[in-house]
Amino acid sequence: MTKAIDSVIKHEDGINRCFWCGTDPVYMAYHDDEWGVPEYDSRALFEKLLLDGFQAGLSWITILRKRDAFREAFDGFDPEIMARYKARKLQSLMKNEGIVRNRLKIEASVSNAQAYLKLSEHQDFSSYLWNFVGDKPLQNRFRSRKDVPAATPLAETIAKDLKKRGFRFCGPTIVYAVMQACGFVDDHMVTCHRHGAFRDSRRPKSK
C-alpha cells in the first residue's frame, strides 16, 4: 500500500518519491533513474528540449511512453539529419501515429535543429546551457508541491536567449521543465530519497 506524505509518496518498497510520479512503474523508474540527474551531453539536452516542446499541453508520461517512437521517427534526434528535413519527411511525420502529430511542433523541430547547429559553430549546446547556472546544479529545498514554480526568472532569461538564437517552442515553462529533468536545478522534494544526490556535481570542463 502506498501512502501520500506531504507531497511525496511512500511506496511499498518503503521509499519516499516525489508526488508527481504516482504509482506508475514507468514514471517511478524515470523519477529514480533520470529526472534530476545532471545531463552534460549536448545531443541529449537537445532531445529533451524538443520532447518538452512536444509535451506542451500534454502530460509528460504521454511523451515518455512515446519516446522510443520519437527517437526512431526523428533519426535519433540527430540535428545534422533533422536540419535537412524536407516536405516529404514532414508529411511522413504527420502520418506517424507513434508520435505527437502537431505540424507546428514538427516544423519547429527542423528550425531548432538548424539553430542548434548554428550555435554549435561557436559553443557546444551543453556548455551554453550549463553556463547559465555556473556549471553546477542549483539546490532548491521544496517541502510542498505548492512551492514548485512553473518557471523562474532564470528560465525566462534562458528562453529569451534561445528564441533570439532561433529556437521555437522553448518558453519559460518548457525551459524550466528541462532544467528540472536534466539536473540544472534539484527540485526533488526535501523528503524525497533523491533530493541532494548531485549537490556536489559540476559539469566537466570542455576539452
Quick synopsis:
This protein has 207 residues and is mainly alpha-helical. 46% of the residues lie in helices and 6% in strands.
Classify the secondary structure makeup into a structural class. mainly alpha
Instruction: Summarize the amount of helix as a percent range.
Output: 40-55%
- The CATH superfamily turns out to be Hypothetical protein, domain 2
Whole-number mean pLDDT: 95
What is the string of helix and strand elements?
A: EEEHHHHHHHEHHE
> Ranges with pLDDT <50 over ≥5 residues?
none
Q: What is the name of the CATH topology? A: Endonuclease III, domain 1
Give me the CATH architecture, please: Orthogonal Bundle
Instruction: For the largest sheet, list the strands in their spatial order.
Output: 1-2-3
Overall number of domains? 1
Name of the level-1 CATH class: Mainly Alpha
| Major pleated sheet | 3 strands, antiparallel
Proportion of β residues? Answer: 5-15%
Could you give the distance between the termini?
49 Å
Describe this structure in words.
- The longest helix has 18 residues.
- The strands form two sheets. This protein has a three-stranded antiparallel β-sheet with strand order 1-2-3, covered by helices on one side. A two-stranded parallel sheet has the order 4-5.
- β1 and β2 form a beta hairpin.
- By secondary structure, the chain is mainly alpha-helical.
- It has one domain: Endonuclease III, domain 1, CATH 1.10.340.30.
